[in-house]
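Sharing a chain and its predicted structure for anyone who wants a worked example. Both blocks are below, sequence first, tokens second.
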Amino acid sequence: MTGAVVLSAGLASALPASAETVEVAPGVHVTKRSYKAPTNEQPFFGFADKNAEDKAADEKFVSAIVAATGTREKAFEEITMRGWRALNTGKIHEAAVRFNQAFLISPGESAVYHGFAVVSQFRFNDFEASDELFKIALMQPDPVKALRADYGRMLLIAKRPRDAEPVLEQAVKDAPDFGDAWTNLAVARFQNGNAQAACAAVEEASKRRPSNNSGDDLRTVKNLAQCK
């Protein structure tokens, strides 16, 4: 899920998180968190204990989707595509369900943690969890090019522009034609006191047709930084 962030966006309160960690894939440990929501709409099913019937249902789902698509890889691609589509249309509840399904298929993939990071941010206002999951997503093989753009955006919303700027500097290298990443970089640079560099990013963003969501941010930075 991509886009820009208004300059005045605030940091919502995150739910208290346990310090306990759980191995969710070989070598991947995540802080155990649960929320007031159906288990299949929470990242990693809210770490709920599953009984034999639940586990059998999970296995049946994976077998069916793999059979329908032909391979586990294609099954994962299909389900994550549905997850991204749900996120980009504001269907956060559905997106969480889809990324849980993707987790059942291939728990070590970067897209699982990327998707859960966005869900944690927008569904549960848990920026601490989102930060952790974005970092894990970056460490997994084959992250999508928009990963750092989404991560940097989250850091801006969390009012962490100094942390966001280096992430977004790399984001525009990963996806140089992504206008929203340039917009968010302009915001970060301006909030960090570098108006000249912010204007350079504004110029780059303007060339790349940023989304409607980021248009207001782009105009705000351009006016505040007094860009030409």
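Comments welcome. Residues 8-18 have pLDDT under 50 and may be disordered.
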